[in-house]
C-alpha cells in the first residue's frame, strides 16, 4: 500500500482491510500490495457497493461524486482520490481481471487539519486547572487525537491527557503550552499562568483589610449614641464638673 500527499498508511485492521488516513482537500492513493503477473483487462473500484471508477476495453468511466477526482493506474491498479472530502470516508475495494493478489480492501479515514486548541483555565481551592480542547467540528475522530504539555514545571513532563493542574504558589510567570496531534497534523496553544488567577480573587484577600476600619468607626458611633462611650470634649466637660 502506498500513500499519496496528505495521506498515511496505518496497516491492517483485520480481515485484509488496510487502514489509510487522508487529509481534507488532500490526495490519497490505494494500491494493491502485490503486482499482478499479467496485464489487467478489467478494473473496478468501489466504495461500499457504489462504483468509483471502472475500466474495461481500454475505456475509463468515473462515477459521481468522484468524477474528475480520481486517477486510475491501469498497469498497477492503483487508485488516487483527489481533493478529499469528509464524505469520502469509507471502505474501498478493487476487483479486477486477472484478480489482484494480496490486499484488495482499504478503509479510508478523512481527517481535518487540527486548528490551535482552545485553553480554558480556572482557579479554586489553591489550584489552577487548565483544560485543552479542540473545536467540535474539527473533532470527528477524537480517539485519534493525542495531547502533550510543555512548560518549565515538572507537571508538564510525561502527561498525555487534556487537563493539567498547578498549585497557585507555582511561578505564575511561566508559559504553559498544550500540543494536539492526530496521525496527519499538529498544532499548539499557550497561556501564561497569571492569566488564570482572576483579579477578583486578589480583591477577596484585600476586603477584610478595607472593611475593618469601617467596622470600628460604625461601632464607635453606635456606642456613642447609646451613651456607652464618651468621646472628645464632652468627656472633658464631665470630668471638670
TrEMBL record:
<dbReference type="InterPro" id="IPR013783">
    <property type="entry name" value="Ig-like_fold"/>
</dbReference>
<keyword id="KW-1133">Transmembrane helix</keyword>
<feature type="transmembrane region" description="Helical">
    <location>
        <begin position="207"/>
        <end position="224"/>
    </location>
</feature>
<protein>
    <submittedName>
        <fullName>Lymphocyte function-associated antigen 3 isoform X2</fullName>
    </submittedName>
</protein>
<dbReference type="GO" id="GO:0016020">
    <property type="term" value="C:membrane"/>
</dbReference>
<keyword id="KW-0732">Signal</keyword>
<dbReference type="GO" id="GO:0009986">
    <property type="term" value="C:cell surface"/>
</dbReference>
<keyword id="KW-0812">Transmembrane</keyword>
<dbReference type="InterPro" id="IPR015631">
    <property type="entry name" value="CD2/SLAM_rcpt"/>
</dbReference>
<dbReference type="GO" id="GO:0005102">
    <property type="term" value="F:signaling receptor binding"/>
</dbReference>
<dbReference type="InterPro" id="IPR036179">
    <property type="entry name" value="Ig-like_dom_sf"/>
</dbReference>
<keyword id="KW-0472">Membrane</keyword>
<keyword id="KW-0325">Glycoprotein</keyword>
Amino acid at each position: 500500500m502506498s500513500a499519496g500527499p496528505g495521506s498515511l498508511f496505518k496497516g491492517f485492521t483485520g480481515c485484509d482491510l488496510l487502514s489509510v488516513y487522508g487529509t481534507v482537500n488532500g490526495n490519497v492513493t490505494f494500491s494493491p500490495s502485490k503486482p499482478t503477473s499479467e496485464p489487467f483487462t478489467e478494473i473496478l473500484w468501489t466504495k461500499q457497493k457504489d462504483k468509483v471508477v471502472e475500466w474495461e476495453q481500454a475505456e475509463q468511466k468515473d462515477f459521481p461524486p468522484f468524477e474528475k477526482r480520481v486517477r486510475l493506474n491501469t498497469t498497477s491498479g492503483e487508485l488516487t482520490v483527489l481533493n478529499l472530502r469528509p464524505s469520502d470516508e469509507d471502505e474501498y475495494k478493487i476487483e479486477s481481471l486477472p484478480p489482484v493478489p494480496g490486499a484488495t480492501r482499504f478503509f479510508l479515514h478523512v481527517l481535518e487539519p487540527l486548528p490551535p486548541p482552545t485553553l480554558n483555565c480556572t482557579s479554586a481551592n489553591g489550584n489552577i486547572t487548565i483544560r485543552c480542547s479542540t473545536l467540535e467540528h474539527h473533532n470527528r475522530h477524537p480517539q485519534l487525537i493525542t495531547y502533550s504539555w510543555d512548560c518549565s514545571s515538572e507537571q508538564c513532563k510525561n502527561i498525555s491527557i487534556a487537563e493539567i493542574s498547578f498549585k497557585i504558589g507555582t511561578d505564575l510567570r511561566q508559559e504553559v503550552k498544550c500540543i494536539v496531534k492526530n496521525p496527519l497534523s499538529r498544532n499548539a496553544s499557550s497561556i501564561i499562568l497569571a492569566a488564570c488567577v482572576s483579579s477578583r480573587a486578589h480583591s477577596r484577600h484585600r476586603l477584610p483589610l478595607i472593611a475593618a476600619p469601617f467596622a470600628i468607626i460604625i461601632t464607635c458611633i453606635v456606642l456613642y449614641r447609646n451613651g456607652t462611650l464618651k468621646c472628645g470634649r464632652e468627656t472633658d466637660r464631665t470630668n471638670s464638673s
